[in-house]
């Protein structure tokens, strides 16, 4: 399993794209698609038209908005560019069918897509994409938004993604014993905020879950001005990596 971080920041971070991850197993999978992650996807050299599986943690704009540009490009490529693509499978929390159904019916050209778009709402039940097993579990984020964390397993290797999350038993559950845990570290421990974790909380979760490697991501600008690795290291003695855009991880 290989993971490329397409975006390690938040909506208006001056130097980082917002949330997005490319997971490569027996096929490419995109997890979240925040603003400025599409240009980073192009930089990886992967043919974007080969991507058939998109997974979303939730639908705040910093995890979702580049889908619109991606889909418009896919439709134009298929209709006018002489290209083709396979079906596009979209997975996400409750509300996925309503949201994407509205987008596909409303935005010009979207309803003309000459390829199938398959929408699937997931919540707690494991599902497979090829040989990759994916377990979705609800996280604690905001009262108005269902946010899912995901655990990926492929050929004996495991990775977890918190999405936007506060510390919770469910977060510990999806991270339990994984090879790599990528966590929401929006804030410095010196300046904590609402609805997200700060660095020390990430360290505590990683320690309790006994993960092998902790990757801190989803930084607000203020978190970038603190030593979040040192803060997380107060509670987690394993390897800690501060994410950056286009960082490549071998799991």
Summarize the structure.
This protein is of the alpha/beta class and 251 residues long. It is built from 7 helices and 14 strands. The strands form 2 sheets. Strands 6-5-4-3-2-1-14 form a 7-stranded mixed beta sheet. A 7-stranded mixed beta sheet has the order 7-8-9-10-11-12-13.
Task: Please outline the helices and strands.
Blueprint (H helix, E strand, L loop, with lengths): L1 E6 L12 E5 L3 E6 L3 H7 L9 E3 L10 H15 L7 E5 L3 H11 L10 E5 L5 E3 L2 E11 L2 E10 L2 E5 L7 H7 L4 E5 L14 H11 L3 E5 L3 H4 L3 H5 L6 E4 L5 E3 L1
Parallel strand pairs: 3-4, 4-5, 5-6, 10-11, 11-12, 12-13
Antiparallel strand pairs: 1-2, 1-14, 2-3, 7-8, 8-9, 9-10
Please provide a written account of the structure.
With 251 residues, this protein is α/β, with parallel strands linked by helices. The chain has one domain (2-250): 4-Layer Sandwich (Metallo-beta-lactamase, Chain A). Helices cover 24% and strands 30% of the residues. It has seven helices and 14 strands. The protein has helices spanning 37-43, 66-80, 96-106, 169-175, 199-209, 221-224, 228-232, and strands at 2-7, 20-24, 28-33, 53-55, 88-92, 117-121, 127-129, 132-142, 145-154, 157-161, 180-184, 213-217, 239-242, 248-250. The strands form two sheets. The protein has a seven-stranded mixed β-sheet. Strands 7-8-9-10-11-12-13 form a seven-stranded mixed β-sheet. Helix 4 (169-175) crosses helix 5. The model has no long low-confidence stretch (mean pLDDT 95).
């Amino acid at each position: 399993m290989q993971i490329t971080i397409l975006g390690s920041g938040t909506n208006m971070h001056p130097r980082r794209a917002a949330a997005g991850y490319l997971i490569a197993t027996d096929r490419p999978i995109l997890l979240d698609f925040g603003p400025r992650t599409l240009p980073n996807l192009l930089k990886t050299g992967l043919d974007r038209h080969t991507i058939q599986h998109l997974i979303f943690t939730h639908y705040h704009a910093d995890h979702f908005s580049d889908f619109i540009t991606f889909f418009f490009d896919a439709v134009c490529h298929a209709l006018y560019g002489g290209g083709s693509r396979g079906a596009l499978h979209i997975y996400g929390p409750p509300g996925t069918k309503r949201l994407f159904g509205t987008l596909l019916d409303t935005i010009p050209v979207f309803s003309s897509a000459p390829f199938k778009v398959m929408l699937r709402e997931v919540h707690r039940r494991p599902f497979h994409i090829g040989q990759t097993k994916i377990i979705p579990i609800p996280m604690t984020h905001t009262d108005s938004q269902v946010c899912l964390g995901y655990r990926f397993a492929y050929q004996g290797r495991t990775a977890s993604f918190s999405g936007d999350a506060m510390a919770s038993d469910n977060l510990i559950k999806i991270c339990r014993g994984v090879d790599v845990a990528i966590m929401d570290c929006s804030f410095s421990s010196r300046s904590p905020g609402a609805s997200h974790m700060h660095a020390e909380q990430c360290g505590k979760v990683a320690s309790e879950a006994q993960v092998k490697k902790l990757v801190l991501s989803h930084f607000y600008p203020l978190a970038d001005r603190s030593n979040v690795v040192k803060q997380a290291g107060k509670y987690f003695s394993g390897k800690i990596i501060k994410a950056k855009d286009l960082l490549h991880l071998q799991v």
